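TASK: fixed-backbone design
INPUT:
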C-alpha cells in the first residue's frame, strides 16, 4: 500500500472479531479482507456462479487451516 492514502475507520468490536475470522492467513490486513469481500460482492453481481465458487474455495481453505491447527495442539 505504498504511496496510497491511509484512513482510519471505526468498527464495532463484534465486526472486528467477524473480520478476524475471515482472514485467509494470520497477518492478513483488514484492508486485504475488505478488498477480497468487495471483490466477491462485485463478482456476485456479474457472475454469481464464479463468486459462489470463490466462496467455496475460501471455506475449504479455512476448514483445512482449522484442521491443521487442531492437529498441532
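OUTPUT:
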Amino acid at each position: 500500500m505504498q504511496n496510497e492514502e491511509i484512513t482510519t475507520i471505526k468498527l464495532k468490536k463484534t465486526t472486528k472479531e467477524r473480520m478476524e475470522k475471515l482472514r485467509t492467513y494470520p497477518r492478513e490486513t483488514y484492508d486485504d479482507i475488505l478488498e477480497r469481500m468487495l471483490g466477491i460482492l462485485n463478482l456476485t453481481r456479474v457472475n454469481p456462479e464464479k463468486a459462489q465458487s470463490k466462496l467455496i474455495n475460501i471455506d475449504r481453505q479455512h476448514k483445512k487451516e482449522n484442521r491443521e491447527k487442531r492437529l498441532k495442539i
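COMMENT: The longest helix spans residues 48-72.
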